[in-house]
Design goal:
The protein has 103 residues and is α+β, with helices and mostly antiparallel strands. 29% of the residues lie in helices and 20% in strands. It has a three-stranded antiparallel beta sheet with strand order 1-2-3.
Amino acid sequence: MKDQAQQSKINIELSEEMAEGIYSNLAIITHSHSEFIVDFIKMMPGAPKAKVKSRIILTPQHAKRLFKALKDNIVKFERLHGEIKVPAAEHLPLNLGGPTAQA
């Protein structure tokens, strides 16, 4: 008899192109009553504009699961490698409309 872990396995396919990943050094998060939108952006020093490289749309429930998974993984990372240092908040001149964004 299969245990529950074996029964709930999902076969996930990752193409070569997707496996390369996309670099992002800024995330803008907005939300409505039914979804969270995360725009991943690559900003280059001195460049007058930045490009959204990827947009992920999540349900509120999935956003909370992602938050918990990120928190858990950051705790594990810091146990192995030490505290992640985050510089003082930068004041970026970003106003893309909608609710105030946080990164």
